[in-house]
Design a protein that fits this description.
The protein has about 90 residues and is mostly beta strands. The chain contains no helices and six strands. The chain has a single domain, classed as Jelly Rolls (Sandwich), CATH 2.60.120.10. Strands 1, 2, 3, 4, 5 and 6 form a six-stranded antiparallel β-sheet that branches. The chain is globular and about 35 Å long. The model has no long low-confidence stretch (mean pLDDT about 95). InterPro entries: RmlC-like_jellyroll, TehB/YeaR-like_dom. It holds the Pfam family TehB-like.
Length: about 90
């Protein structure tokens, strides 16, 4: 998994989502805007993160409080709820 470059800055955060409130749009393939990175921070539980972009190697990672996810700009990805979870997405550009 990539790391967020030191040249970008945090500019907003999503609400805290749970397994009951995670938007359907996050559970199907989607991207961030050009130049926008995301950090998926798991507060409790776990979440499955998949890179679905056909131009990238397939990747599936179980995110946990000790293992956050990094979303690259314009790379198709999705998350899957695997049980009770609380998480937030921080956006950087």
């Amino acid at each position: 998994m990539k790391t967020i470059p030191g040249t970008v800055s945090h500019y907003k955060s999503s609400p805290v989502f749970t397994e009951h409130t995670v938007p359907a749009a996050l559970q199907r393939s989607h991207t961030t805007a050009a130049g926008v990175w995301g950090r998926i921070t798991i507060l409790e539980g776990s979440l499955l993160y998949r890179i679905t972009d056909p131009s990238q190697p397939a990747e599936e990672v179980l995110l946990t409080p000790d293992h956050p996810g990094v979303v690259e700009p314009r790379i198709e990805h999705e998350v899957q709820v695997v049980g009770p979870v609380r998480f937030q997405v921080d956006f950087h550009r």
